[in-house]
Amino acid sequence: MTTRTAHHAARALADPATYTDESALHAGLARLRAEAPVSWVDVPDYRPFWVISRHQDVMAIERANMTFTNWPRPVLFTEAADQLSEAGIIRTLIHMDDPQHRVVRAIAADWFGPKEMRAMRARIDELAHRFVDTMAAAGPECDFVREVAVNYPLYVILSLLGLPESDFPRMLTLTQELFGGDDAELQRGEALEDQTAALLDMFEYFNALTRARREHPTGDLASAIANARIDGEPLSDVETASYYAIIATAGHDTTSATIAGGLHALLQHPDQRERLRDDPGLLPSATEEMIRWVTPVKAFMRTAIVDTTVRGVPVAAGESLLLSYPSANRDEEIFVDPFRFDVGRSPNKHLAFGFGVHFCLGAALARLEVSSFFRELLPRLDAIEATGSAEYIATTFVGGLKHLPVRYSMRPRPGYPG
């Protein structure tokens, strides 16, 4: 039997608390890349898995989607949660492989394409104005995450779905309960049953939405999903609700984490903030650097369906692999000075949106939102500083900052009274 290399930094990735300390996390991942880039993890409550920490290997595995599949274990959850997932309680795009994945993904693909993004730009800019105004009105101090960053992307994605603004607070609570299930502050409860209840509450809402959109289509993304047909048949209730859920949650939490983490990076690197403010032409590269720096999706899982190797290490059929995106996005083999935040970084081959057939459906929308927000915010900031410690969500899947207290002074929007 081949000896499996284990490393304490790899074991730590099964602990949600690991992601609450960015400095320790990245120090551990750097050791992992240097000492055991393919490392075995076998810890209580989780099925064993390999940790893949090098950019080149993550890309190769994502590219080989017929060798390494999403199903049956797309996300690092406990063994009990894995069993619920395998029972079919939820069935999103991240749970699917080709050819089913390709067909189901196509239902919403055009809604995130160039034409729809051009149509959405006015709404995105309007909401950026609105939430920068909200920040100005809340001043001179606020918790940037709670009062601004979590709301702006939520309004964007739920507007695309076509949901009424009166429902947005409820959706915010549900999305945070789902992705904050490992965080004592955000979770509905500690038990798996509590987290499942949050998912079922969301599904109850979306099942009612499906019925409404099938009776009276309204030309929005929710209507497109509700009325989609594959081989002449509509999606099942689980498939339809799952589709809404992945768009509403992933389309919100990842972007809010990037905006909050992006501002935090600009606070920590005032020279880069001044550089970006003085040269708005850097916004596209700054957006990519914020996405790399934050890397909101911490990991996806893949399962080998045949015996294979990764970096010369034997991986048996049926074994799972964790693709560590924060590690890949600080890989010294790919990025020059990877621990330097550089708003002009080029090239920037980050993997925060994944790679290959599962490349993030909403990547273009996320880029638009981040760019629009900072295009509105930076010219209006006279001064800004942190007034307390930044706090991170405990997670093994999607996360970032949950608190960022700041003090600031802002000027009114040009053309508006102060």
UniProtKB/TrEMBL annotation:
Keywords, sorted A to Z: Heme, Iron, Metal-binding, Monooxygenase, Oxidoreductase
Cofactor list: heme
Keyword match Protein biosynthesis: no
One matching Pfam family: p450
PROSITE patterns, per the entry: CYTOCHROME_P450
CDD domains per the UniProt record, alphabetical: CYP142-like (cd11033)
Cytoplasm found in the keyword field: no
SUPFAM superfamilies reported for this sequence: Cytochrome P450
Family: Belongs to the cytochrome P450 family.
Protein name per the record: Cytochrome P450
